[in-house]
Amino acid sequence: MGRFLGITGTPGTGKKTLAPRVAKALGLPAVGLNDLLTARERASASRGVDPSKLRRRLLKLTGGPEVVYGHMVPDVLEKRDAQRVVVLRCDPLELGRRLRSRGYSFAKVAGNVEAELIGVVSAACISKFGRGRVAEFDTTSSSVRASVEAVRGLLAGKAGAMIDWVPFYSSAEKLRSLLSEASTDSALT
Predict the structure, then answer these.
(1) Distance between CA atoms of 184 and 189, rounded to whole angstroms?
(2) How far apart are the C-alpha atoms of 100 and 183, rounded to whole Å?
(3) Is 132 in contact with 157 (CB distance < 8 Å)?
(4) Ramachandran quadrant class, 86 (left: phi over 0; alpha: psi -120 to 50; beta: rest)
């Protein structure tokens, strides 16, 4: 089975905060996929990054079991690479707040909130790695310490529940509230 434990999720769900701590708790190195990008790739990231090049770079630079994290985990790792993957999730309303605090544009906030609402990263992981290797964890209101322990357990094989935000935002009014929240502090309002 694969040599990597993956931690992924929509931007703003806590990957950079949790993954290094989880790796330390497991006694493993942590590798951020964004850290493997060249300066040129970072500068042109809006045009996309070649996942196969990034995978080759990852395999060349790493040697044994490691925690690999980033939103590109389902694009970069192959099924055979991943032992287990945890998808970090966050209530879309809170995610919008987090992304706005980073200064993201309205379009970027709205796109990421929508992706989280419908579970784009989870679906990609399940499609790539299979349901049995994928677990989800809600970072909305958990402390960092509690999150590290929970994610550590999920990576070790503990079963976890799938998260579905759609029932919480099932009315048009609630869906519009996500976008109106996303537009707060935007030049578009």
Answers:
(1) 7
(2) 9
(3) no
(4) beta
* Residue 155 forms part of a structural domain: yes
Q: What single string gives the DSSP state of each residue in 114-154?
A: HHHHHTHHHHHHHHHH-GGGEEEEE-SS--HHHHHHHHHHH
Summarize pLDDT for 101-158 with one digit per residue, the tens.
999 999 999 999 999 999 999 999 999 999 999 999 999 999 999 999 999 999 988 9
Q: Which of 81, 76, 83 is nearest to 26 (CA)?
A: 83
Q: What does the pLDDT look like over 8-29, one tens digit per residue?
A: 999 999 999 999 999 999 999 9
One-letter amino acid for residue 1 of the chain: M
pTM for the structure as a whole: 0.90
Confirm whether 123 is domain-assigned.
yes
**Structural domain harbouring 96:** 4-183
Does residue 156 form part of some domain?
A: yes
